[in-house]
Amino acid sequence: MKYYNINDPSEKVSLRQAVLKSITRTSDLYMPVYFPLLPSAFYAKLGKMSFCEIALEVSKAMFGSDIPKNTLENIVNKAFTFEIPLRKIRENLYVLELFHGPTMAFKDVGARFMAGLFEYLIKNENREITILVATSGDTGSAVANAFFNRNGIKVVILYPSGRVSEIQEKQLTTMGRNITALEVDGDFDDCQRLAKLAFADTELNNRLNLTSANSINFARLFPQSFYYYYAIAQLNEIKNFVVFSVPSGNFGNLTAGLIARKMGLNINNFVASANSNRAVVDYLTSGNFEPRPTLHTITNAMDVGNPSNFPRIMEIFNKEHHAISSAIRGYWFTDEQTYAAMSELQNNYSYQADPHGAVAYLGIKKYQEENNCTGIFLETAHPAKFPVEVKAATNMQVQIPETLKDLLFATKKSVRMPNDFSVLRKFLNT
Ligand SMILES: *Cc1c(COP(=O)(O)O)cnc(C)c1O
Questions:
Q1: Which residues line ligand 1 (CB under 6 A)?
Q2: Which residues, at least 6 apart from 40, have a Cβ–Cβ distance to it below 8 Å?
Q3: What is the domain-level CATH number for residue 387?
């Protein structure tokens, strides 16, 4: 399989280069030249398959020409050691819990598969690779956890100072060894911009072999498609009109859903559920895409003013606004609405949601006011990552899992950094 530069389709590279470089010379995204359709036999047995079996079949279709089957099997079995249950909320409404991985957010799915793929792709290299990752809270810890202590890999995390929850920050800053946390005086878009500047800096790149583990990297993004199949596999009966509501920031998660649909999965529609960072939601109604400065909300992992996967969504639909807006409905919600949704989920359905999942719930609820469908909303983080917000919304304490409890006693270790590329450059060079 070849991967092309979406801004210059004549530039085609191997999987290896697409993954190890993560973005093109021109700072654009890579896409595979096509998405293979999975055979009908796969869909016929979907309901009986485990998550790992699905992940293996889907990754064989995508990566099978580049990676041996038994390697893919090892990557899958090592990465996916946790549950991804679908729970029923009420008639026609389900929640897919993506937070049972080691860092308790859905980013574990992509990061753990990617780490396995990396290990395979660099095993004959003798240079060290530096993964530079901008995080709005959960990516950094998932990547740090997945790559912790791996030979030949250094991880440098850029996170926005004061914009992540206490537990998120502890997860980012207490690992040590091959993991370094840079605390940036800025917001997530600033972190993302600094990372982009570093990737565009040829000299720095050649010295450090920089790569990204954000969803701009196809190896992080693609594995997130697996759980869309698995959600449908867990529905007890065939449902004809299935809609997923995806709490969106950089739109990697939603793009992965679109990829599953492209490969033949029977998903009718998506709901892009956003907070007040609404650039894509506005595009869906107006046809104009205007990135905005980031607004700070309680759903911090979705505080993205200029979503990095938006160009991939455009590419999947040949930039046709009508096609995009028929497949994706967009809604955005305020923090007040999000708190109210958390309280509603608790009171009406005894379901404790984190703020991000609550935004996804609001999106599907709004969609179902006008459309009959089987709705599935994605719960992307464990509520224990947001105990302050859960308490404020429901007046209830969250049970903090043991793994997170220990973290609260660990000592934060970060390097404070102005929002200034020359300072980052100097730091990386020493
Ligand atoms: C990253 C994240 C999101 C947003 O996902 P995107 O793929 O960036 O759209 C939503 N919820 C949580 C908890 C996250 O960590």
A1: 105, 107, 137-138, 215, 247-253, 301-302, 356, 380-381
A2: none
A3: 3.40.50.1100
